[in-house]
Amino acid sequence: MGRARTTGGRTREGGEVSTLFEWLDEVRRRPSMYFATLRDLQMLVDGYSTALWVHSVDEGFALDSRHFGAWLRLRRGWSLSCGWAAAVTSNSRSEADAAQTFFALLDEFRELRPTVRARVRMKKHHQATGRHAVIGFGGRLEVPRVIEVVQYAPEPLYFLRFHHAKRRVDMDVLHDNGANATSLRFAKQWVEEEFQVRADEWEQVPAKKR
Q: Which of 22, 89, 93, 152 has fewest C-beta within 10 Å?
């Protein structure tokens, strides 16, 4: 898609969009043209996100439904068992109110800054143990080339980013023993236990200058 020119976070009318967030800015202007219920919108967002993953397209900071849901649970204390659309709708007066609430929350979520806090480069002795994650019946995770711990700064929400040879995979937000938040310590511990990483193998990631 061609890149649109934006003003104040909104896509100018008549321009093509190049990211999911820019498309959602278009949807915000005429919501009834795109969806009847917020669940319809979530299905479109999830489909778009899946297409990005299948085609290894990196938009930088994209709207991941799992991560958005984790943030909603942290900020609002809502149950996300049926997804973020159901959570927002059940806490709104109407579908129209739910749409307005969603876009207000989206603006808040976009203010977060996914920031790499720690990195480890995987070596031959790093093998998946299956202690925290299995695939199918006893399968092990594919060992990536690099693992990064990413924080949705300034929120206490951390997730793991796996860099494979030809793709990047952002895992679910980690939750410390059922809590709504987690920590850098817990994220590192997860990696150390799952991939046999030693504590002294982590690289220090310098803070980026603003």
A: 93
